């Protein structure tokens, strides 16, 4: 029983983290058809901005609860800046290129941003663990969990709900759905696709920096953290079906639970889990679980 | 218009940069290649501290201001000019870059390599090019157990020594030791560390249970599930050879969940985190520094100078990669100067090689003896201690030293078979 | 013989002759670049059919490990035998995986092929007998017991690489002009129409996949022989990504693109390392962006533009 609950809890926590890093990626892909490798850099920038600003804030002797607001502010601020810079400054000149070329373009951005981060923050690790430990912990059937991690589950769930609501229940969201389904027709109907692209990209970038800022308190923020999460996010998104928010959620849950089951029952397999799950899902659902239907061109 | 201008300006920029990058070299300068990680996850904990230490020591050596016996200028009077190189890109890439260092940039010798994979790939090229190469940090014992190299030396102890000493330490200091668990990164260093630790513990004390062996991916950063597994399968001691960001993340996440309240963590590289995370490491945690480095280093003039100079220059006390880098450079300097005593002018590489073999010298971490691998592999004493706050400041207590002969296989025997056979001929006090 | 073939052979002979006077580092670097060029030539076949594999590292690594393991196990240093073994093993594996993969397109083909290469990576990381992530050393190659320039010379592997690239290059050049080769481009444009024409799309893709695997295996084998060391990194997704990077850099329009691309890539990277050890990634990224912006069809398009201008 203890084992089952541990597996479920660990799986859920890991899944909520995976969803956070995958949400922005899948949103950008869904709207813009860009598989954004630079998402890893956004994550890293968010983590650096969060960790360094929290450190700065706490060193000033302000009340520790404010650190959560600082994290949030750092994520939104850095996400908007980097999102606008990348989209307005670079990507918009590349629209219409092949999907693979776009992956390479974002890969080049990732390479550049890796060094930009190094130049801006140096290579020494940043810590901002106060927000992580401040919330204390909860005991569940004899196992302690950090309340921060439990809160992560709720935050992920709310983001998922917000995205769903924004896409399905608001006017702007419905316009965006039109763009997702058929870019040309949407433009033809008078939707400002270019602006939609910019807004989507910035929201996606903020989701990326937000994931980084939320992760920062529990880790040591240092060079290379961005590269590590990209492939995880890719796998989650592909399992769920590219471009689908519900798919990213399902993919995250499947990978999270499978990974925690493996850690508890058969640690040897941990390295294979994510690719194993991906191979099995793709073998039966070649387009992932919740693929957006595409028209066949004859 | 703009495009062609942009093209031209990038081109000129590149030309300018490449022109500026050519250092002005006097004829008798000693060009030293220094290869450490400057990008990726190993740069922060290892690569940059090592590079910083190298910069500091080379500057001081060139001015001839290091404490005796290193107070002569440069290497045998020649001013040392460093050529830094990133270790990123994998073993094949590094073999290629090594050739570039030697054949294109014309370095006299190379000190470097943190990754064990690079330490296995590079020596073959070093032998072909007959260039003196000092491996300073990598841990795998395989380098000199599987090969005989002439031009390659390693001035740092192997990872086997770490883990055998760790087994000794918990066997001696943990009362009622019944069980251990392990969390190590899923790559060679992690596998070997755990196998050496667990193997030697079995030889020292029969009947210690292993409750769980976790091998998360390197740079994973999220250890929630592993921490739960360690809690479910509780043990007296949790062994971990995590380093850098992974170790620090594991410490943070484990502390926040109270993992270390009824289990003791044994961190073979923990020393490097004790100043950075001083209020997050539980007291009583067993820390190692991969040798007598950092807080475990002896109180000598050289060490005092190094700690003070490094701390004032870079703002933090030096960790073990910094110590090991200094040790590598000093070994090279001593061997070259020893070889120079018997020849007129500058000694040949072969002269330096024979002077380097079986060399014994004092580094900032104490005595280094090049007495394994036919005189090419260093041994040092090993030190472990427990973390404690003394007057609110991070420190170590219950420090134990293990002589090199206690934790190192005798010449000609591999670490794996030495541990399997019950560590024969180990001379422990 | 066609003019192009003669030109290529002449270029190969010139490259071999140049090898005699080149400095060692350049020979070594060119060998690695040519080996990668072989992998990318295979990738080019797939990319012409609109399929981008992010998993060619699977065969690159498998080929290398075949050389390493067979060299130890069979006690042979015979380069030709080892290379043949590597190719056979890769084609055998591709024959199985290809059956599954040829149903996939676009990003799913890319990710699925990556999954397989990451599974090989995982297996190798777990294999302590093969040195886990540290890998192990491979003995220098011999050609029927003979090696030009002594054991320490990089000439032997260089020669093998030049000959292999020439052979494969001629094959690819001709293949792209064969009905099978054109079928690839037709598939990229419109698969359904190709099926209506009575051509089996799956068969065309399957054969291309096998060929690409064979070339990647050959490239891996040459890398192992040249570098003398192999490790699982060769199957990691970043290695596969590098191949795609090179393919786009060189251009997929001509068989010479991949080879040119990989040579430029290696040169660019090694000089970026030398000029700016701290920020070489930025140089690499900027160069890639510049190529995508100014030379959307790869570096080879520049050569074509120049030859056209000369002809005109």
UniProtKB/TrEMBL annotation, chain A:
The chain crosses the membrane at residues 12-30, 42-59, 65-87, 99-123, 143-165, 186-213, 219-239, 272-293. It is found in: Cell inner membrane. InterPro entries: ABC_transp_permease (IPR001851), BCAA_transport_permease (IPR052157). Pfam families: BPD_transp_2. It is a multi-pass membrane protein. Belongs to the binding-protein-dependent transport system permease family. LivHM subfamily. This is Amino acid/amide ABC transporter membrane protein 1, HAAT family.
UniProtKB/TrEMBL annotation, chain B:
SUPFAM superfamilies: Periplasmic binding protein-like I. InterPro entries: BCAA_transport, Leu-bd, Peripla_BP_I. The keyword Translocase does not apply. It holds the Pfam family Peripla_BP_6. Keywords: Signal. The keyword Signal applies. Residues 1-26 form the signal peptide. Residues 30-386 form the Leucine-binding protein domain. Belongs to the leucine-binding protein family. PANTHER family: ABC TRANSPORTER SUBSTRATE-BINDING PROTEIN (PTHR30483:SF37), LEUCINE-SPECIFIC-BINDING PROTEIN (PTHR30483). This is Amino acid/amide ABC transporter substrate-binding protein, HAAT family. It comes from Neptunomonas antarctica.
From TrEMBL, chain C:
It is found in: Cell inner membrane. The chain crosses the membrane at residues 27-46, 58-74, 80-100, 107-124, 155-176, 209-230, 242-265, 277-295. Keywords: Cell membrane, Membrane, Transmembrane, Transmembrane helix. InterPro entries: ABC_transp_permease, LivM-like. It is a multi-pass membrane protein. One of its GO terms (molecular function) is branched-chain amino acid transmembrane transporter activity. GO terms for cellular component: plasma membrane. It comes from the Bacteria. This is Amino acid/amide ABC transporter membrane protein 2, HAAT family.
């Amino acid at each position: 029983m203890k084992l089952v609950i541990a597996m479920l809890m660990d799986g859920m926590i890991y899944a909520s983290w995976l969803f956070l890093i995958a949400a922005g990626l899948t949103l950008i892909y869904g709207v813009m058809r860009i598989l954004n490798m630079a998402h890893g850099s956004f994550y890293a920038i968010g983590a650096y901005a969060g960790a360094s600003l929290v450190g700065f804030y706490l060193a000033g002797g302000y009340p520790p609860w404010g650190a959560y607001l600082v994290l949030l502010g750092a994520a939104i601020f850095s996400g908007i800046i980097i999102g606008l810079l990348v989209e307005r400054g670079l990507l918009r000149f590349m629209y219409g290129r092949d999907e693979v070329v776009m992956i390479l373009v974002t890969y080049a951005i990732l390479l550049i941003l890796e060094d930009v981060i190094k130049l801006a923050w140096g290579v020494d690790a940043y810590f901002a663990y106060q927000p992580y430990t401040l919330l204390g912990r909860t005991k569940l059937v004899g196992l302690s969990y950090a309340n921060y991690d439990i809160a992560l589950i709720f935050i992920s769930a709310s983001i998922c709900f917000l995205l769903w609501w924004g896409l399905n229940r608001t006017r702007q969201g419905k316009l965006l759905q039109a763009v997702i389904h058929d870019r040309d027709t949407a433009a033809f109907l008078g939707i400002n696709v270019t602006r939609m692209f910019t807004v989507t990209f910035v929201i996606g970038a903020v989701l990326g920096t937000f994931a980084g800022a939320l992760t920062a308190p529990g880790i040591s923020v240092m060079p290379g953290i961005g590269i590590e999460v990209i492939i995880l996010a890719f796998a989650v998104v592909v399992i769920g079906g590219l471009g689908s928010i519900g798919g990213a959620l399902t993919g995250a849950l499947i990978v999270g639970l499978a990974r925690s089951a493996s850690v508890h029952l058969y640690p040897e397999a941990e390295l294979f889990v994510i690719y194993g799950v991906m191979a099995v899902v793709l073998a039966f659902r070649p387009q992932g679980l919740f693929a957006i239907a595409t028209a066949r061109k004859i | 218009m703009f495009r062609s201008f942009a093209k031209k300006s990038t081109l000129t920029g590149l030309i300018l940069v490449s022109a500026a990058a050519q250092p002005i070299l006097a004829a008798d300068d000693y060009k030293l290649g220094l290869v450490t990680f400057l990008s990726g996850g190993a740069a922060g904990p290892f690569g940059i501290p090592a590079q910083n230490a190298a910069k500091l020591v080379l500057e001081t050596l060139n001015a001839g201001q290091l404490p005796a016996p290193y107070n002569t200028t440069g290497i045998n009077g020649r001013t040392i000019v460093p050529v830094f190189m990133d270790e990123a890109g994998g073993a094949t890439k590094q073999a290629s870059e090594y050739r570039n260092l030697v054949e294109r940039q014309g370095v006299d010798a190379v000190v470097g390599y943190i990754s064990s994979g690079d330490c296995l790939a590079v020596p073959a090229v070093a032998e072909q090019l007959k260039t003196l190469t000092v491996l300073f940090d990598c841990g795998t014992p395989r380098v000199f157990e599987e090969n005989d190299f002439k031009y390659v030396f390693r001035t740092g102890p192997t990872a086997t020594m770490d883990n055998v000493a760790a087994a000794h330490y918990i066997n001696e200091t943990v009362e009622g030791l019944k069980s251990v668990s392990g969390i190590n990164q899923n790559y060679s260093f992690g596998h070997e560390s755990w196998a050496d630790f667990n193997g030697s513990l079995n030889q020292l004390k029969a009947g210690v249970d292993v409750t769980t062996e976790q091998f998360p991916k390197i740079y994973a950063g999220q250890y929630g599930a592993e921490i739960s597994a360690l809690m479910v399968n509780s043990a007296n001691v949790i062994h971990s050879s995590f380093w850098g960001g992974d170790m620090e993340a594991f410490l943070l996440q484990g502390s926040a969940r109270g993992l270390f309240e009824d289990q003791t963590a044994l961190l073979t590289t923990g020393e490097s985190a004790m100043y950075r995370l001083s209020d997050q490491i539980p007291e009583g945690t067993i820390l190692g520094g991969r040798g007598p480095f950092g807080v475990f280093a002896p109180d000598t003039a050289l060490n005092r100078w190094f700690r003070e100079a490094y701390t004032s220059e870079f703002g933090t006390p030096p960790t073990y990669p910094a110590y090991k880098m200094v040790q590598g450079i000093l070994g090279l300097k001593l061997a070259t100067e020893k070889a120079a005593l018997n020849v007129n002018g500058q000694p040949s590489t072969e002269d330096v090689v024979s002077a380097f073999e079986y060399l014994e010298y004092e580094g900032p971490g104490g005595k280094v003896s090049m007495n394994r691998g036919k005189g090419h592999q260093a041994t040092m004493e090993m030190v472990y201690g427990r973390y404690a706050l003394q007057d609110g400041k991070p420190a170590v207590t219950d420090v134990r030293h293990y002589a090199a002969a206690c934790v190192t296989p005798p010449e000609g025997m591999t670490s794996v078979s030495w541990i399997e056979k019950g560590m024969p001929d180990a001379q422990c006090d | 013989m066609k003019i192009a073939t003669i030109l290529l052979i002449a270029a190969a002979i010139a490259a071999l002759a140049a090898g005699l006077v080149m400095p060692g580092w350049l020979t070594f670097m060119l060998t690695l670049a040519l080996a990668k060029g072989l992998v990318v030539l295979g990738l080019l076949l797939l990319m012409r059919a609109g399929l981008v594999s992010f998993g060619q590292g699977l065969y690159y690594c498998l080929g290398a490990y075949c050389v390493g393991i067979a060299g130890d196990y069979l006690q042979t240093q015979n380069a030709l035998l080892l290379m043949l073994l590597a190719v056979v093993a890769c084609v055998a594996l591709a024959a199985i995986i290809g059956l599954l993969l040829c149903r996939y397109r676009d990003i799913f083909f890319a990710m699925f092929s990556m999954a397989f290469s990451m599974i090989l990576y995982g297996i190798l990381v777990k294999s302590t007998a093969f040195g886990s992530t540290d890998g192990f050393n491979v003995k220098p190659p011999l050609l029927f017991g003979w090696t030009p320039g002594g054991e320490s010379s990089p000439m032997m592997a260089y020669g093998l690489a030049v000959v292999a690239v020439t052979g494969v290059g001629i094959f690819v050049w001709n293949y792209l002009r064969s009905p099978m080769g054109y079928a690839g481009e037709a598939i990229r444009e419109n698969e359904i129409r190709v099926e209506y024409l009575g051509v089996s799309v799956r068969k065309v893709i399957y054969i291309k996949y096998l060929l690409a695997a064979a070339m990647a295996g050959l490239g891996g084998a040459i890398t192992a022989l040249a570098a003398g060391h192999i490790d699982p990194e060769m199957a990691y997704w970043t290695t596969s990504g590098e191949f795609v990077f090179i393919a786009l850099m060189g251009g997929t329009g001509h068989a010479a693109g991949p080879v040119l691309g990989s040579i430029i890539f290696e040169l660019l990277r090694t000089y970026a390392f030398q000029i700016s050890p701290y920020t070489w990634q930025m140089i690499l990224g900027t160069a890639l962006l510049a190529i995508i912006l100014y030379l959307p069809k790869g570096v080879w398009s520049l050569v074509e533009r120049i030859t056209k201008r000369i002809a005109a």
